[in-house]
Design goal:
Elements lengths: L1 E7 L1 E2 L9 E6 L2 E5 L5 H7 L9 E3 L5 H4 L2 H10 L6 E4 L4 H11 L8 E3 L3 E3 L2 E7 L7 E7 L2 E4 L1 H6 L5 H8 L4 E3 L2 E3 L1 H4 E4 L3 E4 L7 H7 L4 E5 L16 H10 L4 E5 L1 E2 L6 H10 L3 E2 L5 E5 L3
Parallel strand pairs: 2-18, 4-5, 5-6, 6-7, 15-16, 16-17, 17-19
Antiparallel strand pairs: 1-3, 1-20, 3-4, 8-9, 9-10, 10-15, 11-14, 12-13
Helix pairs in contact: 9-10
The chain binds zinc ion (2 copies).
Length: 292
């Protein structure tokens, strides 16, 4: 199971909604995607553990997506963090952090490692190109596929020997009573969960390709239909829904809602006409994502 915590679902300027920040949690793995101003306050005030974050992945260097990161790292250091923190981001992310540390007379007590992609345990995180007005990238978070033995089928065929089961589970053939048992006949494949986050983007083919078939897509949905979102490198909720439909994703979270809207009711209504599995999460809400 993956837990997605929508910390800040607004964009541009803060409103009732905070600036972009999303937590992706599975077992010991926690990634923070984007870190707008106010992220650490929202986390600490709501008992979300900032120390458990293993990876921070920034989509682009617009202030609303990144300026919460230098203070978050300072807090981790003050809390006595020693564990390495992985950081991903567009060109300039390293310089932004290093220069802000230098100018604020600060040096973290723990290592930062800047990486282009990352595999930690069963989770793989890779960037994909997005279509904003500055260099930008989205992120795909994938859980490794797994397979379980079809124990019922084995039982029906009178196979109870755990050594046979283990060998099949390892993906190897077994010769048994004159028969060859092939692993593919006894393994039930389970595809790992996949989540994609676009950050700020226009609807574009690069994004559609990268997010194809994901279980949850968090897509830029800054404006209502009728606004020329392209002028700002953003998307309307209808455009987000069109991407979700075209890419055949399972669910769509409408995020980066402009502060000009008091609530997202209209944006959701418009999106649902195109892609019924659309919703607009509120700040600090969460979604538990399961297989199937
Ligand atoms: Zn933004
Ligand atoms: Zn932006």
């Amino acid at each position: 199971m993956f837990q997605v915590i929508f910390i800040g679902t607004g964009g541009g300027a803060p409103s009732k909604r905070g600036l972009p920040a999303y937590l992706m949690k599975k077992d010991n793995f926690t990634a923070l995607l984007d870190c707008g101003e106010g992220t650490q306050l929202a986390m600490i005030r709501n008992s979300l553990n900032v120390m458990s974050i293993k990876l921070v992945a920034i989509t682009h260097l617009h202030a609303d997506h990144v300026l919460g990161l230098p203070p978050l790292i300072q807090t981790m250091s003050m809390y006595g963090r020693k564990e390495k923190l992985y950081v991903m981001g567009p060109p300039g992310i390293k310089e932004l952090l290093e220069e802000s540390f230098e100018l604020t007379f600060f040096k973290p007590d723990f290592p930062l490692e800047f990486v282009d992609e990352l595999t930690l345990g069963e989770i793989h995180v890779t960037p994909f190109r997005t279509c904003h007005v500055v260099p930008s990238q989205g992120y795909l978070i994938q859980e490794r596929d797994s397979s379980n033995l079809d124990v019922e089928k084995l039982r029906r065929e009178g196979i109870n020997d755990w050594r046979i089961m283990r060998t099949l589970k390892e993906g190897k053939e077994v010769h048994w009573e004159g028969r060859t048992l092939r692993p593919e006949d006894y393994l039930i494949k389970r595809r790992g969960l996949r989540i994609a986050y676009t950050g700020d983007t226009r609807p574009c083919n690069e994004v559609i390709r990268a997010v194809r078939g994901v279980d949850l897509l968090l897509h830029d949905s800054t404006f209502e239909a009728g606004v020329n979102a392209g002028e700002y490198g953003h998307s309307t909720s209808v455009e987000a829904a069109e991407v979700a439909k075209e890419a055949e994703v399972r669910r769509l979270a409408l995020i980066h809602i402009s502060s000009r809207y008091r609530d997202a009711t209209e944006l959701v209504k418009q999106a649902k006409r195109v892609f019924p599995m659309s919703f607009a999460p509120s700040d600090l809400s969460f979604l538990n994502l399961r297989q199937g």
